[in-house]
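Hi! If you just cloned this repository, the fastest way to understand the data is to look at a raw example. We've pasted two of them here, unedited. The first protein comes first, obviously.
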Amino acid sequence: SDWSSDVCSSDLDWSARSEEQLMIRYWQHRLREKGKITAIDDTRFRDFIATLGQQLKANVTQARTFSRLELKNILAGDSGEPGNVVLEALDEITAGIWLTPAGKADQFSLNRRVLPFAIGLALVDEVRAAITENEADQSCEAFLGPIADRDIGVEILKVGTSLAFSDAGIRDDTKKALL
């Protein structure tokens, strides 16, 4: 089964045009379910997950932990949001499907089920600037490196391709290179 069937309950309407929208919808649902409103929007959340993916791609076989402070700083970025707003959003992220406790206080690791999604978002960010199909192909090869031929690399490329095709900001030549 794919990750979406593992992480989303079947009693809700989870229709979405892409996996990215589905994952973001899950996070939004958790906030609405608890009656919380956050200033962290979809773009900031997407960037947060892509940043984690970028940091994890170098060594996908070893668990990488993030401190609560690291996660807060990544999520806050340059938003200027008050710390309590960022921490509230971070609490929801760490309580959901994204991050799991790493066995030490205030230490988390990315849930292995969403790892291909996070790194796939980072891949899309990497190839977004490509102007030609060749540039996109080279960027993709450099990004995936030695994991390109492994199962995890294939899964990341599959997710990245799906995300790229649902993103109107990605050039057609770039989409073609990902195929």
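Ok, and the second one:
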Amino acid sequence: NEVRREFLTVSPILIQVAVEALRDPDKLVREWAAASIQAVTDTFIDIDFMIPVREAESLGQDMLVERVDVIREQIRQIEPVIKSLQKATLPLAQHSVRTESDLQTRLECLDIIEDCVVIRRKLWTVEYALANALRKPASNQLAVDPLPFGPETDEVATLVVKGFSDPNPAVRRAAAQAFE
């Protein structure tokens, strides 16, 4: 599908450029940058990974392995976008705590982090469902993860937690939703 291919090609570039634009002095540029990343995460949240997994679970063992390979290939295809989101998470968290910055962009940054958590949860659900269908133990690590790991994980979490003490109640709510 041409639209899918274009989305998968353009989104990593868009995310990278939009993260840079969060530092722009113009408020509208920052708002549009965050909205652009949000559009990418909204698309991923709308994808129902579980439909093909449910189909795979109802197949015979010979067809099951083939279907699982197709699902894993589809996840491999989205890997560049997921990795771009992973790289964007720390700058988004950093921007969300800049109290001198505009409120709308700060909230959008926290919403994007929350979306990354939802996408991660979906990917884990697929991982467990595939392992269950194949009657194998699930992996202890996602092949692609929209959230950082290692020291950046702690830094992102610390920054989002910092939002709990923000003077603006909307930021406090958005920070809490990111951990939901």
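That's it. A detail worth noticing about the second one: The chain has seven helices and no strands.
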